[in-house]
């Protein structure tokens, strides 16, 4: 099982690199869903680089010509409903530093949590994979 060792294992720096990582994560997630299986370590590593769209809202701005290629690629992958849902996340997808998330999981461990089902609200937004759940060390 893949466990991120540092920020380098998570969302990359730079808007275009984040876009590429997000597009790759969507592709991997869809393949895993279609095949009805969980990801291997490499696929988990690629999923962990997902950062949502909050940091790169420009991909949804039709007037931004610097993002024409990326917008076209994303339009090929998402249907209209998915596009609108992804676009909506640009106003509420916030970054949480993995150091904070790690401390929260550690606190839960000190309170006696040793494992079990965990509800991750990000999954309910249909915007993709959440960084917070990836920092679980239990």
Main attributes?
0% strand, single chain, 138 residues
Please provide a written account of the structure.
The protein has helices at residues 15-35, 41-47, 68-77, 80-88, 98-110, 121-124, 131-134. By secondary structure, it is mainly α. α1 packs parallel to α3 (68-77). The radius of gyration is 16 Å and the shape is globular. 20% of the residues are buried.
Q: Helical proportion?
A: 40-55%
Backbone structural class: mainly alpha
The major beta sheet can be summarized as:
none
> Please, what is the average pLDDT?
83
Radius of gyration: 16 Å
* Overall number of structural domains: 1
Spell out the helices and strands N to C: HHHHHHH
Number of beta-strand segments: 0
Shape: globular
DSSP helical segment count: 7
Strand percent estimate? under 5%
End-to-end gap: 12 Å
Q: Detail the poorly predicted runs.
A: 123-133
Task: Summarize the structure in short.
The chain is mostly helical and 138 residues long. Helix content is 49%, strand content 0%.
Give the topology, please:
Blueprint: H1 15-35, H2 41-47, H3 68-77, H4 80-88, H5 98-110, H6 121-124, H7 131-134
